[in-house]
Every structure is written in C-alpha cells, then in structure tokens.
C-alpha cells in the first residue's frame, strides 16, 4: 500500500523545516509543522480553523512565543535539521486519517485531525482549550465537504505506516534546496 503527501502537505512540511530554523531548532517538531501549515494559509485546514473562529495570526503568535529560541539556525546548517518523533507521529496520524477516510493521499485536513489527537504539542493544547476536538473538527469538515463519509476500511497498523512515511519525510527535507529569505 502506498500513501502519498499532497502538494499542499509537501509545501507545509518544507515550511515546517524553515519554521524550525527560524525559531532556532534543529528538530522539526509538531508545532513547527503547524507553523508551516499556518504559513501556507491557502489550505483547507486553515479554512476549517477560520470557520471555527480561530484567529490564525493570534494562533501563530502564541505558538511562536512558545517555541522561539534566542537565535535562528544558520542557513548553512539546514542539512542538520531533521524531523522529531513528534512530527513523525503527527504525520503518521495524518496518514492514518487519510486511510480511514478511504484515501491514499495525505492532505492538510488530515494533519489537522491528527493534531487534535496529538498529546505532546502546544498547538494541540491551544485547540483543545477552545474545545476544538476531533469530533467537532471532523463534523465541520464533513459539513463543508472537506472530508468524505468514513467507510469501514481495513486499516494498516500504525507501525506499517511510520517506516515508509519517515523515509518520505526525510527524502522531502533532503531534497528541499530552495533557500527562503526572512525579512525582519
């Protein structure tokens, strides 16, 4: 079984690496993935959050305040920036959501659903404080046609997904050579 990252998700994951570097982290964590999603605002996950009344700028500022380091990672060290287990678990959960919905491509909405189930993420805590849990988000996604009706499918075990997804994530970061310039 093959599952792929959508173009939007690939963009978000590349931005996540950039966000980790901007905030001074050599490890791309789940919160950096959310910052990447917020940076790439033209996606269904951001539209869902906006529909739930989340101020995306305030959400980003709160996450930034939590993860911001004293110094950014130098651009020449970009090859040293790698996904953490938290980010891999978030992406693995998104893959599970895609498969659960009968798809073979991971979209930002799957990432958002995985996030609200993620236990070790500041961004997830912020959403839970707003009573944005899995059931509420999924219902809103279905109402606005961002998620199909869930069919009873035979799902692979999470361990079967994480190996290939981790490899895809590592290849994606290794292949991303576009330099981003941050304006101050």
Walk me through what this model shows:
- By secondary structure, the chain is mainly α.
- The protein has a single domain, classed as Orthogonal Bundle (Double Clp-N motif), CATH 1.10.1780.10.
- The chain has helices at 7-22, 30-39, 44-51, 56-67, 85-100, 108-117, 122-129, 134-143, 158-175, and strands at 4-5, 27-28, 82-83, 105-106.
- Strands 1-4 form a two-stranded parallel sheet.
- Residues 151-155 and 177-184 have low confidence and may be disordered.
So how many helices? 9
Report the order of strands and helices.
EHEHHHEHEHHHH
Spatial separation of the terminal alpha carbons? 44 Å
**Biggest sheet record:** 2 strands, parallel
Helical proportion, percent range: 55-70%
Query: How many domains make up the 3D coordinates?
Result: 1
Estimate the global geometry from the Cα principal axes.
globular
Q: Give the mean pLDDT.
A: 83
CATH architecture classification: Orthogonal Bundle
Beta-strand share of residues: under 5%
Rg, rounded, reads 16 Å
